[in-house]
Write a structure and sequence with these properties.
Structural class of chain A: alpha+beta
Oligomer: homodimer
GO molecular function, one term (chains A, B): proline-tRNA ligase activity
Enzyme class (chains A, B): ligase
Subcellular location (chains A, B): Cytoplasm
Number of domains of chain A: 3
Distance between the termini of chain A: 33 Å
Number of helices of chain A: 15
CATH topology of the largest domain in chain A: BirA Bifunctional Protein, domain 2
Largest sheet of chain A: 9 strands, mixed
GO biological process, one term (chains A, B): prolyl-tRNA aminoacylation
Pfam families (chains A, B): HGTP_anticodon, tRNA-synt_2b, tRNA_edit
């Protein structure tokens, strides 16, 4: 395509509305434009990048034996009532009434619709397994959409759903999807990790998130520096502390700590480390109080706590000061486990702590030399805390690193949650009715483009991995008024087009400086310059956007060289 | 793909809900399933056919210099208020309020959104022309959705919009789109005609509908048997009747016609032909009465009448008997033009009629030998009637044929309707602000698949034109338990896949009869049978679904033959 004929409204200034770099660059490079809050138009270059991701997704899903279909975006409320989500799903589910008064919603996801389709059309184990996917615009009415394509209201997703007759079959399908996702994000040219994710309250199932690694990511990812282990914070298991032979237990001692309530203030006052103190937090779980004991420098992982209590995270929150006083009789800041009448859970780490400080359950007092079992007991001792970079890998014992990531994919073994709710069954090989065993597999397609930019950019603009770049080559005609340069540019342009290379010819009547700036901004992997050195030596310059390396070579050789470079960059993963 | 692994839920019975053949066959062949009224899931084969159409559309739009983008489906109400359509568009526009109370709608079309995008991002004539399109799921809340994919509420459309700096530019863009549409429907393998369409109240503009010809079509199309002329009924111009030298004018004679009100009854009673009678109809145009004179056997064309009156068809209707009596003092059935005080329009045909019968404006009486100009005058004499197969081509004078069609595409020169309403302007080469001159170009993508089936089917099922068939070849392994036959089937299947042929291998453990039935139902262009004659003579049979012709040849030659057949069928149009 010729730049002069394309709609690429680049901007010189960074729009003030854009907080994150992908949002800024997508706007500046003319890839997207906002229509309304969280809703964007994809302009030709933005759409081209999205289509690249879609194509890779499609090829790898098909290779893994999945079939593409397309389900409606407008869904009947009745199906959501059957699954129980009409009430449970928050206001992100955009509900409306059609002209005939029927309750409907805009699909944020399609478990209900696909389960309904399968229960009506598939009846025997002989027709299984089935793995179906679609690539579609979804809508979630986010309360605070932001970050451009990272958290929009309208976005493009690949969502897939599998139906198996047995647990083993469902597990095999899950593994196939895990592999397909690896291939997809590898082929997109992204640095990513598949991390173990929490499965919430659905028992016996498993889940992985695929995270594009980027400093600007919203999520923290735990990665082992030695083995393949990776998990998100909700899931990352803290190793149980090794048993140690206890030191002599000292006598419990009450000490006045006037006005010292926070861990930092108490430990400074007592001249001890936060590792020598146990803090007592109170949570309200389904409106009932529960105490949580934790080493002073550790933090509660809410999802782990919710799982330990068997409640939904939506029904779990820190108690307010008044609630703490009402249930324990102690003001917040001086609470301790001795004599507590509400349920008490302790983090595993307490198992190797001795002679630690705790609250004295009395205003302005703490206790020194407290010991579990001797001075108090707990109902449960388990993994309740956020993992830290001081922890060791739960798989191999190696060192852990905490890094930032952007979730672009999620695979989930659903089990029979939806098939049971919607009574979707098949006849097994004994003629007995069984619920389908399901999995679901999502990829944020438009989000992947944003994540690729978060991971790959510099101060001048985006740096697209070639497989998902909207164009592979940008060819700059630096003197459109010079006949020889223009002829050479056109000749190379035609040659590249014929070789199947996706090339933009910048034929605009603009200064070279502005063409360089736009080429950098758009992040096209290879920039070819036809200018002065062509006039002087018959040479053109190829520049690699990512490395900045340049290569000067005769016009006649440039086409073949670019074909080879593009070909190498598209080589499929091992 | 293997049939056994695909979701193709074929049905033996025709579902009672389906009235038209495309709807029946799409359901029976497992191409679509209804989710709710007018909303369908596209199963793998249905989606595959749609994707074929999409691909042809995309290739031809790109070839014509259009650029693909993707606009949001959820649109802000404010933009529609700016264009005036928030109020004017009926309840087909699905309106809703989001969680923040903002009025929004589901996009049935995108004139507002694209005009807004362009006014914000394009400012100079140097950036024009621009031609942008998208392929997208649209929603129109039809009151009575029916006929499956023919008139759904949710459907897939290609909609394109062009922006030009001059009328000549806009006309050239229009012609390019006309050509692109010709190529698109030719490449789809469909019999179609581009017909002139009415442009309604937007003056100075033009419009063509692309009609797939099918006996079951909802629309009537007028086609010249000699030249290229084709038009829809609204647009088809009736030639002005040739001037004739008038016969002697006879004396006006009143005659009793007791109880004779309808044309048929009056002419039978008077023993004259309907061609010798002028009927007087009363319409309410924006609630004001107006009389229309027409030869007895002719019918009013409402759009022509609305255009002659300068009103919208929505504001034009036949008057009720009471309204006729109230405004003329004459009971319905005996009305005539003499002495009428309301405006009177006459169809051109009256120009050559003499000594005709009319109503006497008195119950139970008519007049014989009435004559225009002598006995009464009219305000306007123009083309107001439905064309008939007795009319002649307005371009070449050849014979006309009335045939049925299904509208699958529509191109329209919009002019400045939307750019003026939304104040979308650019600076011309004199530095003056000008509204963009727009065109819009739609293709019903999912509807094209339905239209293809309406045009191409027989009692056994669909007959897909190869370019839009979900698969090109269906390979029947007639004895999955026979090792030699299965090996030969697999070998040919692999060979075809490697040659890029889209092939389904029917590997199911089913009787041959049921495989034949399904192959016919699915309408795959070439059916290959590996069965008894392979065992006996090493031969397979290739059958052409459309012609029924069969060809027996050795297994080793079948692959190359199929490649050649598919290649020929995909040859691009001249």
């Amino acid at each position: 395509m010729r730049f002069s004929q394309l709609l690429i409204p680049t901007l010189k200034e960074t729009p003030s509305e854009a907080e994150v770099v992908s949002h800024q660059l997508l706007l500046r490079a003319g890839f997207i434009r906002k229509l309304s809050s969280g809703i964007y138009s994809y302009l030709p270059l933005g759409l081209a990048a999205i289509r690249k991701v879609e194509r890779i997704v499609r090829e790898e899903m098909n290779r893994a034996g999945a079939q593409e279909l397309l389900l409606p975006m407008v869904q009947p409320g009745d199906l959501w009532k059957e699954s129980g989500r009409w009430e449970k799903y928050g206001p992100e589910l955009l509900r409306f009434t059609d002209r005939h008064g029927r309750k409907s919603c805009l699909g944020p996801t399609h478990e209900e619709v696909i389960t309904d389709l399968i229960r009506l059309n598939v009846h025997s184990y002989k027709e299984l397994p089935l793995n179906l996917y679609q690539i579609q615009t979804k809508f979630r009415d986010e309360i605070r959409p932001r970050f451009g394509l990272m958290r929009g209201r309208e976005f493009i997703m690949k969502d897939g759903y599998s139906f198996d007759a047995s647990e083993e079959g469902a597990d095999a399908t899950y593994r196939k999807m895990h592999e397909a996702y690896h291939r997809i994000f590898s082929r997109c040219g992204l640095a990513f990790r598949a991390v173990e994710a929490d499965t919430g309250t659905i028992g016996g199932s498993f889940s992985h998130e695929f995270m594009v690694l980027a400093d600007t990511g919203e999520d923290t990812v735990v990665i082992c520096s030695k083995c393949e282990y990776a998990a998100n914070m909700e899931k990352a298991r803290c190793l149980e502390p090794p048993a140690i032979s206890p030191p002599p237990l000292l006598a419990l001692t009450k000490i006045e700590t006037p006005g010292k309530k926070k861990v930092a203030a108490v430990t400074e006052f007592l001249n001890i480390s936060a590792k020598e103190l146990v803090k007592t937090l109170v949570y309200m779980a389904e409106d009932k109080p529960v105490a949580v004991l934790l080493r002073g420098d550790h933090e509660v992982q809410t999802v782990k706590l919710a799982n330990a209590l068997g409640v939904n995270t939506d029904n779990l929150r820190l108690a307010e000061d008044k609630e703490i006083f009402d249930t324990t009789g102690t003001p917040s800041g001086y609470l301790g486990p001795i004599g507590l009448t509400i349920p008490v859970l302790a983090d595993n780490e307490l198992g190797r702590m001795h002679n630690f400080a705790i609250g004295a359950n009395e205003k302005n007092f703490h206790l020194l030399n407290a010991n579990l079992h001797r001075d108090f007991t707990v109902q449960t001792i388990t993994d309740l805390r956020q993992i830290t970079s001081e922890d060791l890998c739960p798989t191999c014992g190696g060192g852990l690193e905490l890094t930032r990531g952007i979730e672009v994919g999620h695979i989930f073994k659903l089990g029979t949650k939806y098939s049971e709710a919607l009574k979707a069954t098949f006849l097994d090989n004994q003629g007995a009715e069984q619920p389908f065993i399901m999995g679901c597999y999502g990829i944020g397609v438009s989000r992947t483009v944003a994540a690729a930019i978060e991971q790959n950019h510099d101060k001048d603009g985006m740096i697209f991995p070639l497989p998902i770049a909207p164009f592979q080559v940008i060819l700059l005609n630096l003197s459109p008024k010079d006949e020889a340069i223009s002829a050479a540019s056109s000749q190379l342009y035609d040659q590249l087009n014929k070789s199947g290379i996706e090339v933009i010819l910048d034929d605009r009547d603009e200064r070279p400086g502005s063409k360089f700036k736009d080429a950098d901004l758009l992040g096209i992997p290879y920039r070819v310059m036809v200018g002065k050195s062509f006039s002087e030596k018959g040479e053109v310059e190829i520049k690699d956007r990512a490395t900045g390396t340049t290569l000067n070579l005769p016009l006649a050789e440039a086409g073949a060289k670019l074909v080879a470079l593009v070909h190498d960059a598209l080589a499929p993963p091992q």
